[in-house]
Design brief:
By secondary structure, this protein is α/β, with parallel strands linked by helices. The protein is built from twelve helices and 14 strands. An eight-stranded parallel beta barrel has the order 1-2-3-4-9-10-11-14, surrounded by seven helices. It has a two-stranded antiparallel sheet with strand order 5-6. It is globular and about 65 Å long.
Length: 359
């Protein structure tokens, strides 16, 4: 079953990773370019396995220099404190005025575990279960402040209505959190949760908790099969499968500019490489590939990673996106201001306000 949403609105996102770049200005430049193209969001990767700036901190610096585009850093849930993670993501949502997401990831190697010295590496399925618990407690902590908990009454000196703050009292397999959060409920209620579910271990967590799921698929058939599996699993978890956005993740090399796509890289689909599915060709054929997969209900959108950051992002926005806009397949302006609005996702109700305190 394909969702009517998938055929109605095309969603596009791009990675703005830059090797060994520490100047926030270069990330601002890329985010502004993507925003000019009307993209839903940009991602910035992060990992404990290589040196580099903290993605969440960088995008907090990008936030004031952009107006509409969503900002999605990778935030690893292994070895980090769930309470601090949710507070940092909520803060990004506040400083961006409702444009934050977080790409949930896990850390599987013993080398990464030694950086922290708290515990040994664990199997991927165990870590993804824990990541699900972090996503769960984050949502509860974001809800631990009701939307109108802040009073700010100077006359009486009351800042908070204590009856509208809630303890979450969450106990997971590897952590426990009492709450409430130290940050008021984010503008979006819950910042958008993104999971790469290419690997099977991540799929259960993605189906249960993610708003956007990334899938590295080298063929339309493979992408469609994973999307259908995710939607079915989401329904089994009691979710509306139409609230799940499934994006195909592709590396894009637009260096061949005006030439036709290489065999196997155009409308026929990308080619599998060690780094993941790769499209190599021109912006026109990439637009054809995107249009074809989307109009056939294969995926709800695309997450594109330029192989040459500056060159390929520029060709993507000025070439591929412009063509999709010209054909009426992609937005020419942002109708809303938050990332949830870009994605067509409702702002979640506060679970404590709705149920009177039960979690």
């Amino acid at each position: 079953m394909t969702s009517s949403h998938g055929r109605g609105l095309l969603h596009l996102a791009a990675a703005i990773d830059q090797e060994a770049a520490y100047d926030v200005g270069s990330y601002v430049e890329s985010a502004r370019l993507a925003e000019r193209g009307g993209l839903d969001f940009v991602t910035l990767g992060d990992t404990f396995t290589r040196p580099g700036p903290d993605a969440l901190a960088v995008l907090s610096g990008v936030a004031p220099a952009t107006d509409r585009i969503g900002l999605v850093p990778t935030v690893t849930t292994t070895h980090t404190e769930p309470f601090h993670v949710q507070a940092a993501v909520a803060t990004l949502d506040w400083v961006s005025r409702g444009r934050a997401g977080w790409r949930i990831d896990v850390s599987t190697t013993e080398g990464e575990a030694r950086l922290f010295g708290r515990r040994h590496a664990a199997p991927a399925d165990e870590l993804w279960r824990e990541a699900g618990e972090v996503a769960d407690v984050a949502a509860q902590l974001w809800d631990s402040w009701e939307d109108d908990a802040e009073i700010r009454d100077l006359a009486t000196g009351r800042f908070i209505d204590r009856d509208k703050l809630h303890y979450v009292d969450f106990t997971g397999s590897a952590f426990s959190v009492k709450g409430p959060s130290i940050v008021p409920r984010p503008p979006q209620g819950h910042p958008v949760r993104v999971v790469d579910a290419t690997e099977g271990h991540a799929r259960r967590t993605a189906a249960r908790y993610a708003d956007v799921v990334l899938v590295r698929a080298a063929s339309a058939a493979q992408a469609a099969a994973v999307r259908e599996q995710l939607r079915r699993s989401a329904q089994e978890f009691g979710r509306d499968p139409d609230s799940l956005r499934v994006f195909a993740s592709l590396l894009v090399d637009l260096g061949d500019g005006e030439h036709a796509a290489e065999p196997g890289h155009g409308g026929g689909g990308p080619r599998q490489t060690v780094q993941g599915p790769l499209y190599r060709g021109g912006p026109v054929d990439l637009a054809e590939l995107i249009a074809n997969w989307h109009t056939n209900g294969i995926v709800d959108g695309f997450h594109l990673t330029p192989t040459e950051p500056r060159r390929d992002l520029e060709r993507l926005v000025n070439g591929t996106v412009a063509l999709l806009q010209h054909r009426g397949l992609f937005r020419t302006f942002y109708p809303g201001s938050t990332l949830r609005e870009h994605l067509g996702l409702a702002r979640p109700a506060n679970q404590y306000a709705v149920t009177g305190g039960a979690s």
